[in-house]
Amino acid sequence: MRKHSLGPTVSSGVNCPRFCSRVVLALALSLIPLRGLATTVVAPEFDSLVAQADYVVRGTVTAVSAEWRNDANGKHIISKVNFDVREVIKGTPPSPLVLEMLGGRIGKYRMVVDGTPNFIIGEESILFVHGNGRQFFPLVALMYGMYPITLDTASGQRLVHRSNGSPLYDVKDVSRPMTAANALGQGAARPLTPAEFAGQIRASVSTHPVSPPANAN
Predict the structure, then answer these.
(1) Overall fold of domain 29-207
(2) Which candidate, 82, 166, 177, 217, has a CA 20 to 30 Å from the CA of 17?
(3) Rg of the chain on CA atoms, in Å
(4) Across-strand partners of 105?
């Protein structure tokens, strides 16, 4: 049986068993003759990450569903992820917020796109959304656009992590490749809180406003 490339090749050597998945395909590949999805993900600088986002939100996953979709690329699985938006940090997201992306599970069939993070019901994250409904995955730079928030039981604080589970100590660490060897935030007292991260996102928006297109009225 002929095999088809299903999607993005990540050059940064991602090793993140919980938040990122390698291609796992349990359905006949002839059902999804996807072409042209191969790409290389470049870790963005923090200001670029903020600038590329249509909107940035802090929200919790409330539901995940999947459906078959037929389009110009053939037959494949699309997932829809519903969010309860707790805070809008940049832009104007739709309400309700439902992110649509390539991949998912329907019965015994499962399709996972390499380099994309998983969404877990009840999990809270800060998300940099771009091209929802237009891109095969609606976050800036795939895994670089998702920052899970977890409760630190020792301090009682909620803290921000990268999508590979590493604590986010400084916004400069956004541009680091997601490899297990990275020692992030050396010398920092603790990872960023959601309020601190959101504050730096807003500061970046204020410092680097997006200019309107040249042909704008």
Answers:
(1) OB fold (Dihydrolipoamide Acetyltransferase, E2P) (2.40.50)
(2) 82
(3) 18
(4) 110
